[in-house]
């Protein structure tokens, strides 16, 4: 005969591995490990409104960063400028297809997937319902996140600017500033909402309490 036993949701401390129960937090509260005082969970005051606003802003700056030129070069009567996609095309034409693909993935595809996914999740949650494929979409956001490397691209632009400026007249384009703004906004999004907070909203609107599971014995 099967009976059901209620089991609590345990969280392992990342620093000392101590298992402990973390109750749902209110905005502005944080939970710390009872043994080593490491941060276990935090609920930012801005909440979903702040995260959604930052995500929309980052989508706009990412679009600007991929439409406008990153660098403009002037040498006597010659003037040239290149967008990110121009740079990828040039790399492909010069037998550097692999490098071009990495640039395309880390500076455009991964940030677009991550930000698009966050927008798809946050807007319905803000309106009070669960989007279709919540788990699948959040998994995609988590998997694309490590491939977002806008800071590496910014570093490359700075190095190119310093190296080329000694030989030709170089101007930093609007896209470089937009990439820098995207980089800052991505960091702000990461600090404004976390995994636990997203699942908190999921539980709130779905009526399911995933903090407690049931096992058959
Ligand atoms: Zn600990």
| Helical segment count | 7
Rg, Cα atoms, Å: 22 Å
Distance between the termini: 8 Å
Give the distinct bound molecules: zinc ion
The gross shape turns out to be elongated
Structural class of the secondary elements?
alpha+beta
Give the domain tally. 2
Topology, number of strands? 9
Q: Please report which band the strand proportion falls in: under 5%, 5-15%, 15-25%, 25-35%, 35-45% or over 45%.
A: 15-25%
Secondary-structure element series: EEEEEHEEHHHHEHHE
Give start-end ranges of low-pLDDT stretches. Answer: 1-7, 213-217
* Share of helix, binned: 55-70%
Arithmetic mean of pLDDT: 84
Quick one: biggest sheet?
Answer: 3 strands, antiparallel
Strand order of the largest sheet: 7-6-8
What descriptive keywords fit this protein?
single chain, 217 residues, alpha+beta, 2 domains, 3-stranded antiparallel beta sheet, two-stranded antiparallel ribbon, 7 helices, disordered N terminus, disordered C terminus, binds zinc ion
Q: Which helices and strands occur, and which strands form pairs?
A:
Elements: E1 4-8, E2 10-12, E3 19-21, E4 30-32, E5 39-42, H1 47-67, E6 71-75, E7 78-82, H2 84-93, H3 97-127, H4 134-144, H5 150-165, E8 169-172, H6 174-192, H7 195-206, E9 212-216
Helix pairs in contact: 1-3, 1-6, 2-3, 3-4, 5-6
The chain binds zinc ion.
